[in-house]
Amino acid sequence: MSRTAQLEKRFNDILRGGVPADARSYAHFLEAICAQQDPAACINKITESSHGSSAVQAAMRYNTSSKFLNGTATMLLTYLFRATDLGDVLDHLLVAIVDPPIFWTAFSQAFDQGELNEPAQEAFAILLLRLMCLTTGNTSSYRELAKKPSILTRFLDSSQQTHILSTFESGTPVAAVGGPGGRHDNDFNDFKEISILPTADEILCQQPPFIRPSSVLEDPDGEATRTVDYLDNTFRLLREDMLYEMREEIQTAIGQKKGRHRGLTIDGVTLDGVYSGTDDRKTRWGIKLKCQDDFKLMKNVPDGQRRTYLEKDPAGVRILKHQSLVCILSENQIIGLASVHRVEELLAQKPPVIVLQLEGQANITKTLFQLQSSNAIRLIQIDTALFAFEPVLKALQKTQVIPLSEELLFWKDGNIIGSAAVTATQVTRSLAMNPSMDLKWLLGLSSSIVLDKSQAASLLAGLTQKLSLIQGPPGTGKSFIGALIAKALHDHTEQKILVVCYTNHALDQFLEDLMKIGIPDTSMVRLGSRANAQVAHLGIASQKKEYFTRSKADWAIINNLKSSSMIYCKDLETAMGKLMASKIDFMGILTYIEFREPTYFNAFYVPEHDDSGMTRVGKNGKPVDAEELISRWARGFDAGQFKTELNVRETQVIWTMPPNARQKVMERWKLEIYKVILEEICTLGTNYNECQDQLTRRFGDARVATLMGKRIIGCTTTGAAMFAQDIRAANPDVLLVEEAGEILESHVLTALGQNTSQMILIGDHKQLRPKVSNYKLTVEKGDGFELNRSLFERLVLKGFPHETLTVQHRMRPEISTFIRKLTYPDLTDAPKTQSRDDIRGVRNNIIFIDHTHLEDNDSHISDKDDEASSGSKQNTYEVEMVWKIVRYLAQQGYGTERLVVLTPYLGQLSKLQDALKRDNDPVLNDLDSHDLIRAGLMSSTEKTSKKRIRLATIDNYQGEESDIVIASLTRSNESNDIGFMNSPERLNVLISRARDGLILIGNSQTFINARRGKELWGKFFELVKKGNYMYDGFPIKCERHPHRTVLIKSASEFDILCPNGGCTEICDIMLNCGVHRCPLKCHQISDHSQMPCQHPYSGRCPVNHEVKWKCHQSKPYTCPVCVKEAERAEKKRKRELELELKQKQLDAIVDAKERADVLKHDIDPARANAQKAAAGVSLSFGTTNLVPSIPPFNPQSNVPPPNPTQSSPPPKLQPNAAARVSLSFGTTNLVPPPNPTPSSPPPKLQLNMKPLTTQTSDFKQSKSQQPGPSSTSVMNAAPKLAAHQDWLHQKQVDGQKSSAIDGIMELKGIEDVEDTSEQLMRQLEATRIRRLEAKAAREKALAELKKKQEEEERKREEAHVQLMRHWQEAARVRELEVKAAQEKALAARKKQEEEERMREEARAQQKLQQMGAAGYLWIKQSLYALVGLTGKNAQ
To answer: In sequence order, what DSSP letters do the residues of 623-637 get, joined into one string?
Structure first.
């Protein structure tokens, strides 16, 4: 077997675990790795194997000699670096090699000491650079190594590494006066170590932060460190802007500053453990805080609906929004800040549980310690848009290399602009030869497009330069040029384009332009949310999933990360449990001081035996433990029986300490142990978060695959920072930035990928600058920090070449004159801007309404850019005028979609919104809505169905346009203060938004005499006066009567002087009826053919009611009064019928109740008698056997056959069953049937009875005492029952004798029972018959009533038909009359016209007759002479 085969076998055996990786196999294993043909496949195999990475790690750290480092180690690293396309998989293996840093320490020391050869030095440099550029984990140790002077010197010897090292070396020394570091616990020299969220110490720090002025970055002496200084300063400036907003909110929340706090405040929270997500969905770690009470907004929410309320209700959704900022206070002292991780399931609990995520070791340590030791913890929600800062700041910290840095940072006047790496040669060559060519066929456009000179130059620059700047003044079509550039790059190159805009609105508009110009939807993807309906399908979630599979190496890495994450999570929960237990015992303290303070440990050491070898015992006889001495010392006692021990005698200083000093030492130790636990929590939390971040990125590979399959990726600047890793993995070649003049430089910087080779910036630095919160950092403040100076403006001011578009296509020439005179002298107007219609109803297309009404001040609102003002500004007069102007323009036929209302101030915006709500629905963009919601002036759920009208601040309307712009300047005061309206950029934006009409309202004297900006506004008002656009009111004119003009100076005059949008004259135009003229005051409807005539008519109905109608309506077929009376009569009839039915039902119920009472009165006595009789029978036969002998069964008899299973004693008679008594004596076998059949003689009654007992005698005696003929013999009594008669017959005829039966027959009341029963049955039957009769009567009455109702309905219907016929006939007659009147009027007009024509002819004839005879003769002679002359000539 060859050596190559042997190495291959050894390689595979170690990866499979068949051969252990040990000292004997390390060299062969590393050699076998380098012998593999494909480095990428080899690295994948190593990573996939459970033994691979650990084997490489062990082999590389086994031998750290110079020979190994210069030989095998360098050979392996060089081999691995060949697999540059593996990315994270290669980084995973390299991290395994250098961590733990056994090999890395030896390798770096060898480089530092000059022991490495040239290939090894190169391998070290590449490895160090790759480690510094890791996107995960802590890379600070590698950056610190690169800063070591000895390492730096060796790198500087290699020109290849000079530019790389400038990324990691700062020009500000650590010990410099006023330099970074040392101000608080979050101030570090290296900005990458600064926590994004501030600590409490930082918030409370009074020292100014370390920030460089922008001029330092242009210092020629700082070129060597310019890159890292640039990154450092960009980070610190942006973060300071974030902190300014946080400080403002916190000071307002805790009462240190006046203002309205809009966030939630929660008192009484306690630490409740660690939160790391659910088992199936892990998140970054956070702490759980349990509330003492429920949220106020949720106290009335049912338990089962709490989660739904939090997820769907508008008020519930706003409770502790995800990633919102929370300030944690203890006794009104700030202890830390955290971001909310919203878990609805925990928030829905009673009481709620809040999850907060902490950042930074100092912040975590202090916050957890205070949470555990303090009892009064308060949470205050801070309304700072953390999401707008955090992604960008984190991306800046991870930035290692700045693409295009030669152009962005090191460009000098005279340098040649670099060419783009890839160009659309077919387009650029053709366009360079003929700039005015039609691009339709060249770019595959749907219509003909011919560019002007400036547009062609801009397009060429965008396609050919490495960095191109295209300035587009208002209306010049910047976005159009951007779309053409994207179209050319898409169709003629293979490059991937990243399109970045500042707002979602601008991004959506640009993507729409790309679709319109012919770029297919399938080539584009949009990152982020809040897209409009037209581009929503471009969202990443709507894209077809690209086929994506992970390799075994990827899954191996994922599984390793999951395992590590689980271990860290469990350890983190354990450490948090220790902290929450708050029990640090003496053994824990002894363990701590054994390593930290051995002197104290020696003083507390307890020997197990004394000098004689005996075990020491305490007072209870038990052996003393190791805690004996420290326990005595802590309680203030001496060493006791250990006083004579050597270790005690040697540490008398410790044992003689007073009790209070001992307690301080104990507290210090406990605090230090707490810190150890907290440090452990911080370390475990950091490691856990790193695992989760890597897992998140790994599981985002499918999204990366989708991005890699697209040619154009669109996102906002914040989205570019949030998805930075995904975008970097997609590797876009070109960065195209729209509205680059209003985007912070930091946002553009983080959008640059490491492989970006071309950048196109499209914007206008003469319009509004980017927005910042801290006025002290702005260009306008003049302190030199210039945070709001965009990259576009910085490069233009630096002298970098740029192209400028010169033809505007938006404004009519009168409007464009303003910006041409004030800002853009070379701007020209496109032909389509000429000859536009004038604005109807006004005397000019540009109007400035000058007034002197003073402004108001709203201290509850502040405008960020107007730092000098105490609050936002309002002007009630201007609000009312704007409202009326909007209504007036609507009367002229201008829909609200053609109007926009602008104002510079947020306070005025709010007031305008309230006023315009009376007629319209003021629509705000996202930025203005956010500002008003933050100020508490608007609800996020306001909705209306009125016509929508755009309303915006000037700053947030940049990049948009409208047919007519109405602007309220607001400022009007005696001190001539115009605040941030002194900005020329703001004025430029204001006057360049309108296409056809511009209406401004303000106090001109306030602006002309302003302390700052009066030169600018002075020039503006000169142009206004020169154009005769200045008025003391709103100058209207009547379109129908142009000679009638009015100057309206107050809002109330609109209703008086132009109530319908015209003048006060009556319209008097004939309406379409041909009879009446328009009675309204002058209005703008010139075509009255569709305007209904409102002339009133009246008449009488058949019952003499007055009937009214309008001319445009037909005469009513029915009389409204008659209809109403009929409806009332019908309602009354139905009501009476219902009452009648109810009364009948009530009578029936009363009758039934009365009958039931009568029956009850008859039944109750009978029931009582029966009960008494039954009771008597029961007493008489309680001990007597009365069962007769059972006769043989006769089939023809009605008596049922005997039951052989029946027991001999009969059941006793029940005392409460009178009916049973009757049945007993009516159907028993005591008496034979009265008519026995001949074939069956009646059986004789045989009763085998015992002698009567005393009870029977008593019964008889009691019976004899009752009232009545008690002495009468039973034999002589008149028999009433058939059974009684039969017994008498048997006694007299057959000679039967039985004293018992005689006793039964003597029972009084049995006959009455039978009689009463029969009577009751008859009464019940009679009642049933009466009910049936009553029911039949009710049904008959209802049938008659229904028949009567139907008859009445038929009569009403007939009457209605007759009435309808009458009204139809009357209407027909009316129409005939109207037609006849019209024909008559027409005939009259024709007759009048004919008479007028005849009069004209008569007047003409009379005039001819009045001509003199001489004149007539002269004419005649002249004619003859002419004829004679003609005839002569003819001859």
So the answer is: BP-TTHHHHHHHTT-
